Write a sequence for this structure.
């Protein structure tokens, strides 16, 4: 009960996103108690937790509840001004149709290009630029994972110290490769994902593969064409026993380490950056603090000529009309519709829809439903025209702001953005997640100062300063932009890098398993 006393002595703070909104969210760390008089607003009829919505006017049963100037639902019962508006008091609207959407009607005119911003990166023969210098060992099948993991430990301990310009070694381990329907159309998604991850710019251009031998995903199917790769096959008759396999892997790895060790960072224009954005463990502040700051920084990246991706199909579905209107061309708009239509059908096959996205934590954090979550998620994409669509598992082919069509699942989205060529990952969270990847630095941004304080060694940036009024969205946006350049250059290591927190890759495999 100390909580409510403390709260009552604080200045009540609420945030309304748009003048047309009839709800606002509570900023104060401990929420606000019944009887609190809001500045220019009603008196609270009940306790409203932090991040949750309060009705600013009387909202009759069936009337629209607006946040971000968007209808996030309709009142399930009469809501008096000062009421707590939560998921039980809202009826979610149906998803917008995919017919008759605006096609490239409102692509934004961007401010002048930003010249002169650079970072120190590792340039590859194909022109791409890495932010880290890593030896990645690609695998064709899960069967080899234990052996590769053992080899990676030995390489790190015994070989890596001899090659000081190489940052680390990692195995590209996954659960695909055999026991799957590999000739069906959807199998192309996990296969091209693995293929393009093997070619991620952070891996220096050469590819090393460990195969079992009898698996469905044969190395030449994973990496077809003339591209060269070094292959170790565990079932090779030359391998007598486990140690022989490890020796083979380590011998091949050492050749790659010697090659990678000769690479040096060089000054590259910011246009060589490929940034992947996503959010996870979101709350109602995600769309107020961290995601708008990312959106501001995303526009700066676009003006600097870089590539920046946003994703998460179920979190943009309710805002599809905004996206198709913002597309640079009608073809890009049609590609967005095609990908989200495919995803609707994929979800329907499993008797789900986009409403399956929200988590108990999202709701506890004040996000009543997927419509509200989506509006907060999309603001990551800033205001730039959408220059292209990356289908799941494909590599990005154009620069600018891209929609990488991926599931919202943090691990699956990160894995697909890695395949798209991401060399830097930025991740916003309100509830808190220690997420990290071995292949790219992950910059984590807390939506609330309370989280940034508690998780002081897990969060890289505190965007909660926007809610408290200590910083503007533009201040944070510029700070993010400079953070990207610093982390990309290796001048700054992220929390997840320092603690070596690496989540597993998670392939998106919509095809059947046999
Ligand atoms: Ca996510």
């Amino acid at each position: 009960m100390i909580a409510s006393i403390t709260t009552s002595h604080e200045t009540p703070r609420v945030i309304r996103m748009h003048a047309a909104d009839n709800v606002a969210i509570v900023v104060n760390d401990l929420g606000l108690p019944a009887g609190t008089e809001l500045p220019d607003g009603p008196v609270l009829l009940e306790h409203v937790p932090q991040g949750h919505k309060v009705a600013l006017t009387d909202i009759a049963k069936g009337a629209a509840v607006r946040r971000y100037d968007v209808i996030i639902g309709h009142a399930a019962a009469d809501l008096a001004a000062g009421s707590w508006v939560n998921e039980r008091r809202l009826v979610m609207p149906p998803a917008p149709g995919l017919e008759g959407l605006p096609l490239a009607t409102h692509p934004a005119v961007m401010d002048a290009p930003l010249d002169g911003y650079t970072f120190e990166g590792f340039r590859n023969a194909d022109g791409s630029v890495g932010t880290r210098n890593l030896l990645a060992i690609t695998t064709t099948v899960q069967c080899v994972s234990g052996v590769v993991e053992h080899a990676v430990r030995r390489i790190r301990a015994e070989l890596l110290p001899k090659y000081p310009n190489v940052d680390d070694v990692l195995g590209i381990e996954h659960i695909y490769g055999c026991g799957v329907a590999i000739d069906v159309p959807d199998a192309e998604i996990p296969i091209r994902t693995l293929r393009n991850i093997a070619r991620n710019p952070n891996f220096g251009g050469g590819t090393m593969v460990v195969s079992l031998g009898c698996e469905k995903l044969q190395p030449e199917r994973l990496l077809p064409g003339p591209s060269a790769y070094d292959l170790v096959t565990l079932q090779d008759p030359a391998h007598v026993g486990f140690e022989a396999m490890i020796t083979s892997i380590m011998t091949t790895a050492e050749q790659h380490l010697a090659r990678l060790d000769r690479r040096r960072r060089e000054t590259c224009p910011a246009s060589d950056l490929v940034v992947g954005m996503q959010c996870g463990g979101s709350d109602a502040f995600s769309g107020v603090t961290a995601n708008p700051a990312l959106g501001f920084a995303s526009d700066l990246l676009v003006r600097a000529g870089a590539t920046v991706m946003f994703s998460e199909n179920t979190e943009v579905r309710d805002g599809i009309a905004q996206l198709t209107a913002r597309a640079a061309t009608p073809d890009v708009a049609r590609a967005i519709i095609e990908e989200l239509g495919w995803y609707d059908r994929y979800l329907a096959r499993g008797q789900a829809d986009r409403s399956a996205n929200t988590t108990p934590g999202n709701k506890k954090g004040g996000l009543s439903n997927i419509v509200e979550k989506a509006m907060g998620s999309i603001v990551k994409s800033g205001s730039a025209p959408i220059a292209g669509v990356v289908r799941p598992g494909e590599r990005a082919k154009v620069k600018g702001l891209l929609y990488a069509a991926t599931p919202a699942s943090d691990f699956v989205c990160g894995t697909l953005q890695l395949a798209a060529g991401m060399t830097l990952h930025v991740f916003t969270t309100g509830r808190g997640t220690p997420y990290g990847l071995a292949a790219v630095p992950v910059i984590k941004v807390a939506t609330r100062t309370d989280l940034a304080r508690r998780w002081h060694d897990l969060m890289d940036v505190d965007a909660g300063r926007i809610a408290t009024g200590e910083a503007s969205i533009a201040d944070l946006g510029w700070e993010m932009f400079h953070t990207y350049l610093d982390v990309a250059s290796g001048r700054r290591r992220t929390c997840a890098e320092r603690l070596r927190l690496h989540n597993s890759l998670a392939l998106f495999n919509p095809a059947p398993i046999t």
